[in-house]
Amino acid sequence: MASQAAQELIQRHPLQRLDSPSRGASALLHITGLASFAYSFAYLVLNPNPINDSYGWHFQYLTIIGLALSTATFAFGLLADLTLSRRLFAVKNALSVASAPIECLITILYWGLRAIDTSLVLPPWAPVLLLRDDLSFHFMPAFTLTLDLLFFSPPYAIAALPALALSGAIAFGYWFWIEQCFTYNQFYPYPIFDVLDTPGRVGLFAASAGLMALATGALVWLYGVVNGRVDEGRLGKERSGNVKGE
């Protein structure tokens, strides 16, 4: 009996709702997500605009950086499903610590700013996105990554301060990157950066880092609501994905 319980612990974290990696529902979710992400990247190539020929390409946009990170996360997830490799599964979980919160941040910022004023996120020359295209870029990544976290992953093992540090590094790293692109292109990818002066941009990126950290905390809380919480006395210190280590 004890041996069987130990094997189950290795095979799946006690708070992980569904088997992953697996060739069933987990693989289906990862294939669905990758198909949506591929559709978005294909849209950028098949519908070129001035950004295609500028320095940094579409990676000037946080949306596309997040999309690339989401693609990497689900690619490792699908490889883990196909090979049943717990090591690849752990890599997927490690990537999701950043990709899931950043996609939630992108979704909140994009739809929030659009509700205030569309011109803050879309320049005058930007083509009108059909709803399916808009959702592909600005909803499906957050939705699929959240599903993956809640049902096919062990709980996050990241504390508040590391989460804030990670969020700050991403936010201010992105600021450095867009300033680098600006030196070549002489324009910012998002019109809101033209509206704000330098102190305003500092405030925006600091607020974004805080919002991403809050998104991380919200995902941790939601995971607990859906799956329960780790009994540290019984399970010891868990690390995301390591319980499936080979």
From TrEMBL:
UniProt keyword rRNA-binding, yes or no: no
Domain of life of the source: Eukaryota
Subcellular location: Endomembrane system
TM region(s), chain numbering: 27-46, 58-82, 94-113, 159-178, 204-226
GO CC field: endomembrane system; membrane
Main subcellular location: membrane
Keyword set includes Transmembrane helix: yes
Annotated membrane topology: Multi-pass membrane protein
Keywords per UniProt: Membrane, Transmembrane, Transmembrane helix
Alphabetized PANTHER family for the sequence: ANDROGEN-INDUCED PROTEIN 1-RELATED (PTHR10989), AT02829P-RELATED (PTHR10989:SF16)
Protein name: FAR-17a/AIG1-like protein
